[in-house]
Model the fold of this input.
Amino acid sequence: MEAKDQKVLDEILESHGYDQTAVIAIMQDIQKVYRYLPEEMLCYIAGKLHLSEAKVYGVATFYENFSLEPKGKYLIKICDGTACHVRKSSEILDEIRGQLGVTAEKPTTDDMMFTVETVSCLGACGLAPVCTVNDVVHPAMTPEKARDLILELKGEAKAGEEAADEN
Amino acid sequence: MEKYMIIDGERVGFTDEKNILAVIRKAGIILPTFCYYSDLSIYGACRMCVVEDKWGGIIASCSTPPKHGMEIRTNTPSLYYHRKRILELLLAAHCRDCTTCEKNGKCKLQELANRFQIPSVRFENTKPIKPIDTSSKAIVRNPNKCILCGDCVRVCSEIQHVGAIDFAHRGSDMEISTAFGRDIADTNCVNCGQCAAVCPTGAITIKNDTHDVWEAIHNPQKRVVVQIAPAVRVAIGEAYGYAPGENTIGKLVASLRMLGVDAIFDTSIGADLTIMEEAEELLDSLAEKDRKYPLFTSCCPGWIRFVETQYPHLLKYVSTSKSPMQMFGAVIKEYYRKMDRREGRETVSVAIMPCTAKKYEASREEFKRDGMPYIDYVLTSEEVITMLKEIGIRFDRLEPEAYDMPFSIYSGAGVIFGATGGVTEAAVRRVVADKSPKALKEIEFIGARGMEGVKTCEVSVGDRQVRIAVVSGLGNADRLLQKIESGEEHFDFVEVMACPGGCVAGAGQPFARSTEKRMRAEGLYKNDKALQIKRSEENPLVESLYQDLLKNREHELLHVDYCKK
Done:
């Protein structure tokens, strides 16, 4: 682990007073920064909190919200709650997965740009079917709108990369 | 006023029972359980111990404290239904190849299925087959046989403070896992095997090396030399109806001869050598000024691994003396080396141990010479019982026999190594100046004996008082180390055994609860009483070994440097 990452972790641990019972909150803070929970970081906090690595792994795998796999720059969540499901959210999911070439088993694109997940309910049933991209809500989706959205995001990603190259 | 409960219409008094399960047991009813062990915290997962309250509510008796006047029933139609369904569902998600299971005949699930007469299982096992983890030298994990009772998790974290395994994932995906699903050998597992000892099914079993030993026995080119650890003699008879603590070493020697091994010796001789070396180290460490840390014992491989993984900075305070098994292993291989060359044979050194961690110790690089291990195989008491059963030896009908020459003389000090406090007592016998019978008797009462997890005692050596702690159970050791680190406690000598109760309670022994463990320890002290030689230094064999085989090679053959990596 790099020194700067260790500093980030120490700050997070410090802000929770190295409290064992705050392990979930600590993991949430780590995931906020890195978008997932790297193995070495979990081992590091386990040591600092005097918890076994197996225990920390147990907590991390218990909650759907925690990810042990790195996620793409754009995290797309497609709601598959009851309201969205009856309004054919699965077609939208198929369309987006097809466009990006990802599956349920391999949810992230090789270039680490996109991750596609389903969620049980986003709580926006009135706008069904719904998806979010990095927490921005896209209401009343259709397969066509989904295709356009992906194209738009791909363009944005490319522009971002070029801008980074120029710098 | 005496407090009572009403169980199935009968009054049953209770005092300080923690749960109604214990009160029910007092009433003579043994409710079925998978996840209940009185030494561990209450988990309440298996729901087999359910009872009905007077309003028809179903409660788990293991996690309900008794109340005065409480009325419960243990045998009602709905309880009958629930227990059967729970068992059927457990069986549905379980591998049912009982005949080829390592735990066949000793499995709690099998026992309860038998007791409850489950005629068939209506549901298909839809769980994907998971790989078996055979990475460890000591244990085998087969997740397909796990019923998620959590006993292993709790013994590992609560009793041993290791926490190599825990629950992972959720719901139907839940499993017992190491951190990040690593192989158990790549974790901080200390190989103590206590998880396997409490596992009700075949999900965690002790690695079986009997096949390899049979091959060696059947090969005329191989000379199979066996050493037997002290703790084995007071437990192995339990498989044949002997009381725990009864010394059946003579019968064990006789049966091993029938098995076809070539020579049989006693690890207690190794223990005598250990005391000679360790007592020397103790005297040296006492001479050091301002030493913050004590000299820690090094006999227990589970403890060594615990220090390596959790307190690596304390490794340099652990005695460099090899364990009795390894000291004697080195002696055996050296002794037969020339003879092997002459006869064109190969000596295979087998150690019969109460311990699973010894299997791991035997495989360590530190205990090899030119790539060849000093100990080729470690068999647990249980594995030896299996081998004897395989060829149908009637252990109980055999006449006791004596050990082979030349390593047949050992001291009582070596024998008591098998009980917690035994190493300490043996070392004290060596270092105190007064060698009178009265002084020996006094040493019995310094406080090293007994099954408590932490004992402290003081003895005077020369002109100073030596503070000693005797610890068994790694959780107890962990707590003590924290006190030593903080400066709250100071000791000169600390004996640690990983298994609560010491080697008599090792995971390789027949299953035992606290009463049996205590009886086994008492059996060792009784054995000590009956031996003429009480102190390691009085063993003439030790003297002759130092004069001859070990001469100028003490360091090479009897010491180990765990710090060197």
The two ends of chain B are 65 Å apart (CA to CA). Chain B has a mean pLDDT of 94. Chain B has 19 helices and 19 strands.
